[in-house]
Amino acid sequence: MTGNAEHQITAGFMPLLDSALLVAASEIGFAAKEGVALTLVRETSWANIRDRLAVGHFDVAHMLAPMPIACNLGLTPLASRTVAPMALGLGGNAITVSNAVWAAMEAQGARPDLDPKGAGAALKAVVAERAGGGGEPLRFAVVHPHSGHNYELRYWLAACGVAEGDIEIVIVPPPLMADALRAGNIDGYCVGEPWNTAAALSGSGRIATVKAAIWRSSPEKVLGAGAKWAEANPEALAALLRALYHAAIWCADKANHAELASLLSRPTYLGKPEEWMLPALSGRIRTGGDGERLVEDFFIPLAKAATFPWKSHALWFYTQMVRWGQIRHSPAHEAIARDSYRPDIYRSALKPLGVPLPGANAKVEGALTAATPVGSAGASLLLGPDGFFDGQVFDPDEIESYIAAQNSGRSDR
Prior knowledge:
This is ABC transporter substrate-binding protein. The protein is an alpha/beta fold.
């Protein structure tokens, strides 16, 4: 990039496949076409991403979808106002377990079909067996306390009857997950790609289930922006959002997947083999051993309004913060969570493109059903385009009743 661009923007990112829109915007030239000189800075942890955005090292960042909400609720050490004017895709993570845990799960009826109900029932039996024999609790890792990984792992476990204290949950940066599993420091993890594929291809773990089966079309990462910077630089932010939207179109085109995998594999970005990127891009998930499953909506960069910052997504994450004791529910806290996602900025930025946009800023999550079952043969649940695997529905206008129902159903109470 030259110094003649109209807008100079520095963005932090983590080495994950869902940084793809930022990488494509920079490398394919979409940012330059919008007059943006986009500088991408790779980081080593989500805490660093959060803190460097807070102190102004970054103008924007590839962020965990719940992280702007946590910042605005004062749950972070360097709490600063952060807005999420765009999502960076849907889906993209999975839950991987060690070979030893998978063998125990198979003995309890688990099948290599990625079905969250079957895998969860088997894991519950393994947990109970270990507890009955006086064994140490299984230790699972997530990437950050304020991450979709943490909330979705906990949601899955609770819905399958695993009590909160029956599995230890620890924090490990994404690039260290597979190594920690191989070393025996953890028994499983929930992380974005390519770090599940890394374990499957190296033979150190098995993918048990995927985010796309736990909560279909659910948000994973967003573009986070410092609120002060966003307010002072609305034209720069709008130009970046347009560039990222064009990047999403490019990333969604199957004809570009080989080139995208090559870009992501560069040392500047992920620095890992192209074959680690292709399963998530193609949806052909290598589960471990010789297993492979087709999950067509594993990672969605464009379809299903994948870049739209739904307020209902923000509010679901907020309910999980309340559910797991990170914050007390109040109307004021709910309002902060709702206003952290900014579809108004997104709409304004994309208006010149004339692209179709959702008619509302929030929706009832999980209200629609599908025509075919998801998961193993014989599964009874018909998941819709944004369905939860346990059939629950989240209405953002009924926050209090949703929180109350979850708390009353917690398996540790």
